[in-house]
Protein backbone atom coordinates (compact mmCIF):
# COMPACT_ATOMS: atom_id res chain seq x y z
CA UNK A 1 0.00 0.00 0.00
CA UNK A 2 1.44 3.35 -1.08
CA UNK A 3 -0.23 6.51 0.25
CA UNK A 4 0.45 10.06 -0.96
CA UNK A 5 -0.83 13.35 0.38
CA UNK A 6 -0.66 16.79 -1.27
CA UNK A 7 -2.13 20.23 -0.68
CA UNK A 8 -2.97 21.16 -4.28
CA UNK A 9 -3.52 24.89 -3.55
CA UNK A 10 -6.62 24.88 -5.78
CA UNK A 11 -7.41 21.84 -7.91
CA UNK A 12 -8.30 23.82 -11.04
CA UNK A 13 -4.97 25.66 -10.92
CA UNK A 14 -3.08 22.45 -10.15
CA UNK A 15 -4.35 20.58 -13.22
CA UNK A 16 -3.69 23.49 -15.57
CA UNK A 17 -0.77 23.23 -17.99
CA UNK A 18 1.51 26.13 -17.04
CA UNK A 19 4.23 25.69 -19.65
CA UNK A 20 5.54 23.06 -22.10
CA UNK A 21 7.67 21.73 -19.24
CA UNK A 22 5.06 22.01 -16.49
CA UNK A 23 1.97 20.00 -17.37
CA UNK A 24 0.37 20.24 -13.94
CA UNK A 25 -1.02 17.59 -11.61
CA UNK A 26 -2.51 15.19 -14.16
CA UNK A 27 0.81 13.75 -15.43
CA UNK A 28 1.78 13.11 -11.82
CA UNK A 29 -1.30 10.88 -11.49
CA UNK A 30 -0.24 9.04 -14.66
CA UNK A 31 3.15 8.27 -13.15
CA UNK A 32 2.43 7.74 -9.46
CA UNK A 33 2.51 4.27 -7.96
CA UNK A 34 0.30 5.40 -5.09
CA UNK A 35 -2.75 3.32 -4.24
CA UNK A 36 -4.40 6.15 -2.27
CA UNK A 37 -3.97 9.90 -2.73
CA UNK A 38 -5.23 12.50 -0.24
CA UNK A 39 -5.82 16.06 -1.47
CA UNK A 40 -6.26 19.24 0.55
CA UNK A 41 -7.31 22.80 -0.30
CA UNK A 42 -9.15 21.75 -3.44
CA UNK A 43 -11.14 25.02 -3.39
CA UNK A 44 -13.88 23.36 -5.42
CA UNK A 45 -17.32 21.87 -4.98
CA UNK A 46 -17.86 18.18 -5.73
CA UNK A 47 -18.85 18.78 -9.36
CA UNK A 48 -15.92 21.10 -10.07
CA UNK A 49 -13.51 18.65 -8.45
CA UNK A 50 -14.78 15.67 -10.45
CA UNK A 51 -14.57 17.73 -13.64
CA UNK A 52 -10.98 18.78 -12.97
CA UNK A 53 -10.02 15.18 -12.21
CA UNK A 54 -12.04 13.60 -15.03
CA UNK A 55 -8.95 12.12 -16.75
CA UNK A 56 -7.93 10.52 -13.45
CA UNK A 57 -11.40 9.09 -12.86
CA UNK A 58 -11.42 7.78 -16.44
CA UNK A 59 -8.32 5.79 -15.52
CA UNK A 60 -10.33 3.96 -12.85
CA UNK A 61 -9.64 5.93 -9.68
CA UNK A 62 -12.44 6.26 -7.11
CA UNK A 63 -13.13 9.71 -5.63
CA UNK A 64 -14.59 10.85 -2.31
CA UNK A 65 -14.72 14.54 -1.42
CA UNK A 66 -15.79 17.04 1.21
CA UNK A 67 -16.62 20.36 -0.40
CA UNK A 68 -15.93 23.66 1.39
CA UNK A 69 -18.76 25.64 2.95
CA UNK A 70 -17.21 28.89 1.71
CA UNK A 71 -16.67 29.18 -2.03
CA UNK A 72 -13.02 29.04 -3.04
CA UNK A 73 -11.65 27.89 0.32
CA UNK A 74 -10.74 24.58 1.97
CA UNK A 75 -11.98 21.30 0.47
CA UNK A 76 -10.45 17.84 0.92
CA UNK A 77 -10.63 14.62 -1.08
CA UNK A 78 -9.36 11.06 -1.27
CA UNK A 79 -8.72 9.08 -4.44
CA UNK A 80 -8.22 5.32 -4.31
CA UNK A 81 -7.53 2.61 -6.85
CA UNK A 82 -9.90 0.32 -4.91
CA UNK A 83 -13.55 1.12 -4.07
CA UNK A 84 -14.55 2.69 -0.76
CA UNK A 85 -16.40 0.60 1.78
CA UNK A 86 -17.15 3.65 3.93
CA UNK A 87 -17.05 7.45 3.61
CA UNK A 88 -17.41 9.88 6.54
CA UNK A 89 -17.32 13.66 6.24
CA UNK A 90 -16.22 15.64 9.30
CA UNK A 91 -14.37 14.64 12.43
CA UNK A 92 -17.43 14.60 14.67
CA UNK A 93 -17.55 18.26 15.73
CA UNK A 94 -20.68 20.06 14.53
CA UNK A 95 -18.82 23.36 14.15
CA UNK A 96 -16.63 21.90 11.41
CA UNK A 97 -19.04 19.40 9.88
CA UNK A 98 -19.33 21.29 6.59
CA UNK A 99 -16.02 23.14 6.45
CA UNK A 100 -14.37 20.75 4.00
CA UNK A 101 -11.46 20.10 6.34
CA UNK A 102 -11.83 16.42 7.27
CA UNK A 103 -12.77 13.39 5.19
CA UNK A 104 -12.39 9.77 6.28
CA UNK A 105 -12.70 6.69 4.08
CA UNK A 106 -12.32 2.95 4.41
CA UNK A 107 -10.49 1.36 1.50
CA UNK A 108 -8.32 -1.73 1.08
CA UNK A 109 -8.79 -2.69 4.76
CA UNK A 110 -7.45 0.67 5.90
CA UNK A 111 -9.01 3.86 7.29
CA UNK A 112 -7.53 6.92 5.57
CA UNK A 113 -8.33 10.52 6.43
CA UNK A 114 -7.50 13.65 4.47
CA UNK A 115 -7.26 16.61 6.83
CA UNK A 116 -6.62 20.31 6.32
CA UNK A 117 -6.00 22.34 9.47
CA UNK A 118 -6.70 26.08 9.59
CA UNK A 119 -3.66 28.32 9.22
CA UNK A 120 -4.51 30.30 12.33
CA UNK A 121 -3.13 33.67 13.39
CA UNK A 122 -1.50 34.23 16.77
CA UNK A 123 -3.64 35.93 19.42
CA UNK A 124 -6.75 36.21 17.23
CA UNK A 125 -10.09 34.44 16.89
CA UNK A 126 -8.62 32.59 13.89
CA UNK A 127 -6.14 30.93 16.24
CA UNK A 128 -8.89 29.97 18.67
CA UNK A 129 -10.81 28.38 15.79
CA UNK A 130 -7.70 26.44 14.80
CA UNK A 131 -7.27 25.19 18.34
CA UNK A 132 -10.91 24.06 18.51
CA UNK A 133 -10.35 22.11 15.30
CA UNK A 134 -7.17 20.61 16.76
CA UNK A 135 -9.15 19.42 19.79
CA UNK A 136 -11.90 17.94 17.62
CA UNK A 137 -9.42 16.02 15.47
CA UNK A 138 -7.61 14.74 18.56
CA UNK A 139 -10.91 13.37 19.89
CA UNK A 140 -11.52 11.51 16.64
CA UNK A 141 -7.96 10.21 16.63
CA UNK A 142 -8.42 8.80 20.13
CA UNK A 143 -11.38 6.80 18.82
CA UNK A 144 -9.31 5.52 15.89
CA UNK A 145 -6.57 4.35 18.26
CA UNK A 146 -9.20 2.47 20.26
CA UNK A 147 -10.41 0.91 17.00
CA UNK A 148 -6.86 -0.17 16.22
CA UNK A 149 -6.45 -1.83 19.62
CA UNK A 150 -9.89 -3.43 19.79
CA UNK A 151 -10.37 -4.56 16.19
CA UNK A 152 -6.94 -4.36 14.58
CA UNK A 153 -8.19 -1.77 12.05
CA UNK A 154 -5.25 0.43 11.10
CA UNK A 155 -5.58 4.12 10.23
CA UNK A 156 -3.53 6.93 8.75
CA UNK A 157 -4.33 10.66 8.84
CA UNK A 158 -2.76 12.55 5.96
CA UNK A 159 -2.70 16.20 5.15
CA UNK A 160 -1.64 19.75 5.76
CA UNK A 161 -1.53 20.17 9.53
CA UNK A 162 -0.20 23.76 9.40
CA UNK A 163 2.06 22.99 12.37
CA UNK A 164 5.82 22.54 12.23
CA UNK A 165 6.52 20.25 15.18
CA UNK A 166 10.19 20.84 15.96
CA UNK A 167 13.09 23.04 14.93
CA UNK A 168 13.97 20.35 12.38
CA UNK A 169 10.62 20.93 10.68
CA UNK A 170 11.15 24.57 9.67
CA UNK A 171 14.22 26.20 8.18
CA UNK A 172 13.75 29.64 9.76
CA UNK A 173 12.50 28.51 13.14
CA UNK A 174 13.99 31.46 15.04
CA UNK A 175 11.98 33.92 12.99
CA UNK A 176 8.68 32.08 13.50
CA UNK A 177 8.56 31.32 17.23
CA UNK A 178 5.68 33.76 17.79
CA UNK A 179 3.81 32.96 14.57
CA UNK A 180 0.96 30.54 13.91
CA UNK A 181 2.28 27.22 12.74
CA UNK A 182 5.18 27.22 15.20
CA UNK A 183 3.57 28.45 18.40
CA UNK A 184 4.59 26.60 21.59
CA UNK A 185 1.03 25.44 22.31
CA UNK A 186 0.64 24.05 18.77
CA UNK A 187 3.91 22.17 18.98
CA UNK A 188 3.02 20.82 22.44
CA UNK A 189 -0.37 19.67 21.14
CA UNK A 190 1.38 17.64 18.45
CA UNK A 191 3.84 16.25 21.01
CA UNK A 192 0.94 15.18 23.22
CA UNK A 193 -0.86 13.65 20.24
CA UNK A 194 2.17 11.57 19.30
CA UNK A 195 2.35 10.37 22.91
CA UNK A 196 -1.04 8.65 22.37
CA UNK A 197 0.64 6.05 20.08
CA UNK A 198 0.25 7.88 16.77
CA UNK A 199 3.46 7.82 14.72
CA UNK A 200 4.82 10.56 12.47
CA UNK A 201 6.04 8.07 9.88
CA UNK A 202 8.10 10.51 7.79
CA UNK A 203 10.05 11.63 10.86
CA UNK A 204 10.38 7.97 11.88
CA UNK A 205 12.03 7.31 8.51
CA UNK A 206 14.19 10.47 8.67
CA UNK A 207 15.19 10.91 12.34
CA UNK A 208 17.26 13.81 13.57
CA UNK A 209 17.58 15.72 10.28
CA UNK A 210 16.24 18.99 8.93
CA UNK A 211 13.18 18.35 6.78
CA UNK A 212 12.35 16.81 4.45
CA UNK A 213 10.30 19.94 3.85
CA UNK A 214 7.08 19.81 1.83
CA UNK A 215 6.02 23.49 1.64
CA UNK A 216 7.91 26.48 0.30
CA UNK A 217 6.61 29.99 -0.28
CA UNK A 218 6.11 31.03 -3.88
CA UNK A 219 7.97 34.24 -3.03
CA UNK A 220 11.68 34.96 -3.26
CA UNK A 221 14.24 32.16 -3.23
CA UNK A 222 12.54 29.99 -0.59
CA UNK A 223 12.30 26.97 -2.88
CA UNK A 224 15.75 27.35 -4.41
CA UNK A 225 17.30 27.69 -0.94
CA UNK A 226 15.14 24.89 0.50
CA UNK A 227 13.86 27.34 3.12
CA UNK A 228 10.73 25.32 3.75
CA UNK A 229 8.35 23.94 6.35
CA UNK A 230 7.46 20.33 7.10
CA UNK A 231 3.76 20.70 7.84
CA UNK A 232 2.40 17.87 5.65
CA UNK A 233 2.24 14.71 7.71
CA UNK A 234 1.11 11.13 7.64
CA UNK A 235 0.29 10.04 11.19
CA UNK A 236 -0.30 6.29 11.42
CA UNK A 237 -1.45 3.83 14.06
CA UNK A 238 1.41 1.70 15.45
CA UNK A 239 0.67 -1.44 13.47
CA UNK A 240 0.67 0.46 10.19
CA UNK A 241 3.72 2.54 11.15
CA UNK A 242 5.68 -0.67 11.72
CA UNK A 243 5.12 -1.51 8.05
CA UNK A 244 6.78 1.61 6.61
CA UNK A 245 9.29 0.62 3.94
CA UNK A 246 10.05 4.16 2.72
CA UNK A 247 8.85 7.74 3.14
CA UNK A 248 9.77 10.70 0.96
CA UNK A 249 8.81 14.16 -0.21
CA UNK A 250 8.47 14.41 -3.99
CA UNK A 251 10.26 17.74 -4.32
CA UNK A 252 10.19 19.06 -7.91
CA UNK A 253 13.55 19.29 -9.68
CA UNK A 254 13.07 23.00 -10.34
CA UNK A 255 10.88 25.94 -9.29
CA UNK A 256 9.32 26.11 -12.77
CA UNK A 257 7.99 22.56 -12.43
CA UNK A 258 5.89 23.28 -9.33
CA UNK A 259 2.11 22.96 -9.69
CA UNK A 260 1.52 23.70 -5.99
CA UNK A 261 3.40 25.43 -3.19
CA UNK A 262 3.39 22.00 -1.48
CA UNK A 263 4.99 18.77 -2.69
CA UNK A 264 3.51 15.27 -2.39
CA UNK A 265 4.50 13.28 0.70
CA UNK A 266 4.53 9.60 -0.21
CA UNK A 267 4.85 6.61 2.12
CA UNK A 268 5.17 2.95 1.14
CA UNK A 269 3.60 0.61 3.70
CA UNK A 270 4.76 -2.97 3.08
Give me some keywords for this one.
single chain; 270 residues; alpha+beta; six-stranded mixed β-sheet; 12 strands; 26% helix; 24% strand
Rounded to the nearest angstrom, the distance between the terminal CA atoms is 6 Å
Shape: globular
Name the helicity range.
25-40%
Rounded to an integer in angstroms, the radius of gyration calculated over CA atoms is 17 Å
By DSSP (H or I, 4+ residues per run), the number of helices equals: 8
Order of helices and strands: EHHEHHEEEEEHEHEHEHEE
Strand content: 15-25%
Catalogue the unreliable spans.
none
Pfam family, one: Exo_endo_phos
Family: Belongs to the DNA repair enzymes AP/ExoA family.
Cofactor: Mg(2+)
Domain Endonuclease/exonuclease/phosphatase: 5-262
Q: What does this entry show, briefly?
A:
The protein has helices at residues 11-14, 25-31, 46-52, 54-58, 125-151, 184-194, 201-205, 238-241; strands at residues 2-7, 36-40, 62-66, 76-80, 84-89, 102-107, 110-116, 155-160, 199-200, 232-236, 244-249, 265-269.
Please explain how this structure is put together.
- 26% of the residues lie in helices and 24% in strands.
- It is built from 8 helices and 12 strands.
- The strands form 2 sheets. A 6-stranded mixed beta sheet has the order 3-4-2-1-12-11.
- Helix 5 links the parallel strand 7 and strand 8.
- It is globular.
- The termini are close together.
List the helices and strands and how they pair.
Elements: E1 2-7, H1 11-14, H2 25-31, E2 36-40, H3 46-52, H4 54-58, E3 62-66, E4 76-80, E5 84-89, E6 102-107, E7 110-116, H5 125-151, E8 155-160, H6 184-194, E9 199-200, H7 201-205, E10 232-236, H8 238-241, E11 244-249, E12 265-269
